[in-house]
Design goal:
By secondary structure, the chain is α+β, with helices and mostly antiparallel strands. Helices cover about 15% and strands about 25% of the residues. The chain is built from 8 helices and 21 strands. The radius of gyration is 25 Å and the shape is globular. About 0% of the residues have low confidence. GO terms for molecular function: heme binding; molybdenum ion binding; molybdopterin cofactor binding; sulfite oxidase activity.
Amino acid sequence: MTKKTTRRDLLRGGLAIAGAGAFATTAARAQGDPAITELQPWMQQLGEGVDARPYGMPSPHEAHVKRRSVEWLTADPVSSVNFTPLHDLDGIITPNGLCFERHHAGIAEVDPAQHRLMINGLVDYELVFTMEDLARFPRHNKVYFLECAANSGMEWRGAQLNGCQFTHGMIHNVMYTGVMLRDVLATAGVQTAGKWILPEGADASGMTRSIPMDKALDDCMIATHMNGERLRPEQGYPIRLVVPGWEGNMWVKWLRRIEVGDQPWHHREETSKYTDLLADGAARRFTWAMDAKSVITNPSPQAPLTHGAGPTVLTGVAWSGRGSIPRVDVTIDGGKNWHQARMDGPSFDKSMHRFYFDFDWDGKPMLLQSRAHDSTGYVQPTKNQLRQVRGENSIYHNNGIQTWAVDARGEAENVEIG
């Protein structure tokens, strides 16, 4: 009896033929490959037991995947930054050990038993909380990106750093667990005149920033955990402030005090620093929100194409401090033709979003760009569009479109086009 051919059989057969054709060269090379025909050492001996690595570590073959710094960027590593290896990651969650660091006085090693959080100023009751006290408030879990306002800052006057780890790596995206700031403030009783808060860190720099009360009562958190484990010392252990969608300098680490006041304090980090210098010498201040931005992570200068012409997966990340990212466009010809990328994975407010573009590369040079659209309707601008408004004196809040030039060998370079 002849079996009836179904539509599913035809589709399966068509996909198999397409796949075989696409990867025929690779398959031919695999014939006689000793990686297939010979037993490998790990197939012939027992491995370590379950207690050999009580805190799991990545494979030694992934030892190159790490945070990196730029030596000449700052005068001293104690007050400096290192960068997340975006080109080596996929999905949207940044592993705790790869989250970029920015310090103003090095890493504070805080004993949680001796750490306190004080609420003072324009409140009915000035209170001091232990870490155990804070753990008794209702707990929440939220996924947010944290981006330094200076991310991409070196690119304001033209292409400079060759790798998305260095152009865009002052960012990470994790799940924070903690308590809502509004719940803690409510116990102290914010007075009617209280319109601002001043969080202060316990590190030697005494980091402070003024934050409007509306934001504090909206979505700010006091975080105790990242991705399920306690904050690491470099990320503010035992507690840090989370200010979703706003520049990372406001996410005060090693949080020790919150003062309630009736006006902003105009401290160093919101006057001489973290303001946007315009062409005429005036400075924009209180530009807290991080606008929609994206970057192609593969291919990129640190992640060249090595497979030659044929099926190719382009991928990257996009984010917005004002909402979610429903759409990303990509171009492989410098903006002559734009294609809507495929969004994949969870879509959270003020979080990273992963996008892909699957295409057949013809082996010719490409100019790669991505352009994010956020849920407010805002579209990521070009660098020249930003410069027309702000000039070239700025450092902070550069969310311009990034360009990678990929040559026929698959190697990529940071360039700038119109």
